[in-house]
Write a structure and sequence with these properties.
alpha/beta, Rossmann fold, six-stranded mixed beta sheet, 11 helices, disordered N terminus
Length: 332
């Protein structure tokens, strides 16, 4: 497996977004079990970062440390420009956290949950009601605002949970498996909410077990395995770590197909469907090389499609039992 994933070259004059979250050498153990074994993270402002991992991989521990809920054993962490060790209180004023388990109180109404959160943020009564009304409308909860939260569906409770997180106008939001247990429609609604938050400049740190979710939302993805970052990069970069990518050429003319079969000697072929599969990493360079070769040899396929491994393939390859416990980190 390749030892690194290369980023698209960056122009020298392109500005780099400031880091909303930065961690170097982050470590945490419970007894003799090492949960985080010196991980490094850099998350630019206004982006979505997804942390993937198996159950017990340490995703929630990372969230708890970065959101000041527990202290690390070692490492340097800065959140929103503040040092975790010396300015935890400043960090708490800049962040919001939505955990795996809802913080919604089912015994009171949605509106009362929001107003309670406004009180905890020391908003005035007038400001608290204004913010509550705006967020309830934004999350399509106005009609249910006067109903006990216990009557809400799972998707509604999750939307209320995030609305409560936004009362303090956080710059950084930690979402720990926010769509677990939601139906597909509610999950897609939550994705749109996250996209809207990022469009408004919020940074989102997301943990999830839904690989499609990371693929859809995240600017960068890291896979946590045995306490280390097994790989990090964009979704496309991670997919290129795993072999199996190919270009599929389909022909309707048997003569052209036979010519292509003899010309493209590294391709596997299916004579029944007149189809060739040419191994490739899905990169622009590899595709251009193939197209140039087809043009030079005068071969015209009726259909060309590029197939790359998906994040499921990446996840299983990186967290499989035979994987050495070593880091495969993207070049930043």
């Amino acid at each position: 497996m390749p030892s690194s994933v290369m980023n698209t070259p960056r122009r020298n004059d392109a500005p780099r977004a400031p880091a909303a979250v930065s961690a170097v050498g982050l470590r945490k153990s419970y007894g003799d079990k090492t949960v985080l074994d010196g991980i490094d993270l850099t998350i630019p402002e206004g982006t979505v970062f997804a942390l993937l991992g198996q159950n017990g991989a340490g995703k929630t521990t990372a969230v708890k440390i970065l959101s000041t809920l527990i202290t690390p054993d070692a490492g340097q962490v800065r959140i929103a420009g503040h040092d975790l060790t010396t300015h935890a209180q400043h960090i708490r004023a800049e962040i919001g956290v939505t955990g795996q388990f809802s913080a919604v109180d089912g015994l009171i109404t949605g509106e009362e949950n929001m107003l309670l959160m406004a009180d905890l943020h020391h908003l005035t009564k007038h400001e608290g009601r204004r913010v509550t009304a705006e967020l309830l409308e934004r999350f399509d909860l106005t009609q249910a605002a006067a109903k006990p939260a216990s009557t809400y569906s799972g998707g509604m409770r999750r939307r209320l949970d995030i609305a409560m997180t936004l009362v303090g106008s956080p710059r950084i939001i930690f979402l720990d498996e926010p769509t677990t247990g939601l139906d597909p429609r509610s999950r897609h609604t939550m994705w749109q909410i996250i996209r809207t938050l990022v469009a408004d400049g919020v940074t989102v740190f997301l943990t999830t077990q839904y690989l499609e979710e990371a693929d859809q939302l995240a600017d960068r993805i890291a896979v946590l395995h045995h306490g280390k970052i097994a790989a990090e990069g964009t979704a496309d970069q991670l997919k290129r770590l795993v072999p199996g990518g190919h270009v599929r050429l389909r022909f309707t003319d048997p003569t052209t197909y036979r010519t292509a079969t003899h010309t493209l000697t590294d391709a596997t072929h299916d004579d029944d469907t007149l189809t060739l599969h040419i191994p490739g990493d899905g990169s622009q360079r590899a595709l251009r090389t193939l197209l140039d070769h087809l043009h030079t040899t005068g071969i015209e396929a009726d259909e060309l499609t590029v197939h790359t491994p998906d994040l499921d393939d990446v996840f299983f390859a990186l967290t499989g039992p035979d994987l050495p416990n070593q880091s495969t980190e993207a070049v930043r």
